[in-house]
């Protein structure tokens, strides 16, 4: 085992070594790389003296070159700032000409943060105040921001470090600069102290600035349960409305957060219409039932709301509900009279749960994210109790609503469909083992698949516009994989002719897109790829492969690594080669491709061909499935015959896939 004491001893020994080379010889890049590693090890051990002694072997120019050399995404100087080694940072700034704006990769897994930032930004994030001062004193750009335009002072507000915020502001930091999403310093500060928020407001921060989604500092304060900040923001003129998908009153935001203390304060200290107050109590009741699993409290709040509606019997505030009922809500209807509301206490839990969903949809609207989230949540509760069809109904409806108010590329839609895939897999697994009697309904599969195909069509148009947002291609690839999952589900179900015809039409629609991932993988490639070598990993469906080919998928199309579908088939086969009985199934899949005319001798970027493996497995006689055209291409490649510029484009491309 190599412990720290061993490392310290070795480093101290290395520190007194003589220079290995003149700083101008031809090995300079390699030596800088080696020296960079050594310097980082001194930084990790907080050994300034050893660092000084080691760098004394180099002239000033090379010292600067070493400490500013970016290796493994970070220069030594950046690393010293990140780790809070103030004495080392000071030495590098004063003696080694450290570059204060040289960015390094900073990763915070807990915050899902991964970006290249400046030494000042990382020092603020790690709350190394002494280093922040050193950097500012040496001219660091106080406004240098991240890829999302988050400035050091905004980061300091997020870290709730009032001392650093004050220091940066005193030195010219701009507290009004939002990030690309509209997030402000004040919004970030709502997780910090009252003093920090007061400081920002007193220095001109707008309490009513909004993000691109319409969120304000008040929104964040209520979400964080900060009654003190709610009082403060109301006192300095905060708007009574915030946006979460749609515009709502802050009383309703407190209600859907389930915070009765903040709810009561807003109720008692703002002027509002009776209808808004009544809706607030009904939302608070729905939250008690759905989020807190407190049905008695929810019913109490609903009765309170109903009493307010009928406080004046001569002019009651009647509840307006839709004429039609919906199957997804079990055809339930909201209560409209005090008598009906009081009778809910004797109702079954399902009716009360549906009442909560109906109330939320009426007050917030079906486009509101909270409405959709609670429908998803209730579906999950049904799935957990093995009421799978109820879960399917609710999640299908949630996806339908989510499609109406989100871009086709939005990650939330990937989340919706991933839930669906997991649910249907669980249903099929439990159904095959006899644990449940419910069967997956083919109509549900076709309904969701049709929505997914429409989403892919819209997504394909988004991909034509640059620049693309982060994770756009990742989301598109996920949707392609989900499309394959739904095709698998369909061929495992017992569909009628009408459903099969409709499903085939949707498959044809998606194939017309010729959709591909960022790496050029089409549906046929993806359908033949598996991630796991485990025996329980699902095999590709031969019905899906045949359906894709019938719908026009090319068996010879290649991805960006020049892999044809057969290459991916062989790669997946190799992963499971030790699993009994899998060989024959993979052989059958390979044969489907071979019989449709795939070239077994084409090479990918690694110069791999499927042919050798297929021969090892005794699958084919090469000449039986190798055309004269293929043989000619191989002779051209093997003999090194010049063909570019001599062959037509189609023939040139054909020879290239054999290279």
TrEMBL record:
PROSITE patterns from the UniProt entry: ANK_REP_REGION, ANK_REPEAT
UniProt entry keywords in alphabetical sequence: ANK repeat, Repeat
Keyword presence, Repeat: yes
Gene3D superfamilies for this protein: Ankyrin repeat-containing domain
Endoplasmic reticulum found in the keyword field: no
Mapped ANK repeat ranges: 115-147, 148-180, 519-560
Signal peptide location: none
Pfam families: Ank_2
InterPro entries according to UniProt: Ankyrin_rpt, Ankyrin_rpt-contain_sf
PANTHER family cross-referenced by the UniProt entry: ANKYRIN REPEAT CONTAINING, FI19351P1
Protein name: Protein fem-1-like C
